[in-house]
Specification:
alpha+beta, 5-stranded antiparallel β-sheet, Beta-Lactamase, Arc Repressor Mutant, subunit A
Length: 387
């Protein structure tokens, strides 16, 4: 046995590296095996729903590991016994099953014994009801049983392993949310850009990336800040984002706004609809999102029509007109002026649109309108005229 304080500290540091990078776990297993004079360290996670196991055991022959995950995991009586034990309790293999019984099992004669997996201590690390994790160290019987020093090291390490696995799970959730959310924005068919309060680009979907790559009208500077071709338009855009970020409360009906962005004499200007975001966008991690920008390129414009919205959501003609104005970046004041109604009346119609589309904020409304099946929402050009 050779594990002083420095070695323990180094091992714990490595565990937290694995918490942030799953590829480090094999190094953790190797280091733990070295410190306890074990031949193999095995870290296992079990999915009770799918009935599968994933094992990290870098010193186990690859073909043996495949055999275990494909076959022996389903014929290992120690798993069910170990799962019934308390979390964090270090036990030997013979605490789980007496030796005279274990040597009579098929897994012992055909798997454990040929690999020299005769002495083991380990513990269950977590169990949420549907999945669980455990770890253990193995060596041949000729090396003798693991002593109290090894058990003490494992006991001291368990809280760190548990926290690392929890962090792994949390990071996996964030990555899943990131993937799902980015795919959702990519499917909108409209350019969408998430920015912080300083108008730094946090995320741009594929359609928006194409616009930014052209650098005609909108671009990212070296610090990632979104800029328009004209300084005055950049200032106006940044002001919309900053003012939206400062607004208190949950009422978004009057927040945000739209800004046209010049692209030169030969190109039609872009229209940028700025919608403040109240809720934290967890899938972007610690970078707080202030607003989502929907960018319309009139040269490639497509989207729902007023008639389509009336049919698809049961909106009245005026409600559909207000919804189209919001979608196109006109805002409530523009909708009111266009339709010859008071701003308060426009706000009432927008509230009705929220109710009928099961949304509560402009950002949600725009997303729902853009996602609505084109067979329902898209009509002929004549349908788009507001009567």
């Amino acid at each position: 046995m050779r594990h002083g304080l420095d070695e323990r500290v180094a091992l714990i540091e490595l565990v937290y590296e694995a918490a942030l990078d799953r590829h480090v776990w094999p190094k953790v297993a190797d280091r733990l095996a070295d410190l306890t004079d074990a031949t193999i360290c095995q870290i296992s996670t079990y999915d009770g729903v799918a009935r599968t196991a994933t094992d990290i055991a870098p010193r186990m022959p690859p073909e043996a590991l495949r055999s275990y995950e494909d076959h022996w995991v389903y014929h290992n009586p120690l798993i069910a016994i170990g799962r019934r034990k308390p979390i964090g309790l270090v036990l030997s293999i013979y605490d789980l099953m007496p030796r005279r019984e274990l040597v009579q099992t098929s897994i012992y004669g055909e798997f454990f014994l040929p690999l020299g997996l005769e002495e083991k201590i380990g513990a269950k690390l977590m169990d949420d009801g549907s999945s669980w994790a455990a770890f253990g160290i193995w060596r041949p019987a000729r090396m003798g049983a693991f002593d109290g020093s090894s058990a003490g090291l494992l006991t001291a390490l368990i809280p760190h392993l548990q926290r690392a696995l929890e962090l792994n799970a949390r990071i996996a959730e964030i990555e899943m949310a990131r993937t799902s959310s980015s795919e959702l924005l990519d499917q909108l068919g409209k350019a969408a850009i998430l920015v912080d309060g300083a108008c730094r680009v946090l995320f741009a979907n594929r359609t928006a990336e194409r616009i930014l790559a052209d650098q005609l009208g909108m671009r990212r500077d070296v610090e990632g800040v979104l800029r328009a071709s004209l300084p005055s338009e950049t200032c106006a855009l940044h002001k919309l984002v900053a003012e939206g970020a400062k607004r208190a409360g949950g009422d978004e009906t009057g927040a945000g706004g739209s800004q046209r962005v010049w692209r030169g004499k030969s190109r039609a200007p872009l229209t940028v609809l700025v919608i403040p975001l109240r809720a934290a966008t967890d899938w972007l991690g610690s970078r707080r999102t202030a607003a989502i920008l929907f960018v319309t390129d009139p040269e490639h414009a497509s989207g729902p029509t007023a008639a389509g919205l009336q049919y698809g959501f049961g909106l009245t003609r005026t409600e559909a007109a207000v919804a189209i104005e919001v979608l196109n970046g006109g805002g409530l004041k523009a909708a009111a002026a266009r339709l010859g109604i008071a701003p308060t009346t426009a706000r009432t119609h927008l509230t009705a649109v929220f109710d009928k589309t099961n949304t509560r904020r402009q950002a949600d409304l725009v997303r729902v309108l853009l996602q609505k099946d084109s067979a329902i929402c898209n009509g002929s050009p004549a349908d788009h005229r507001l009567r």
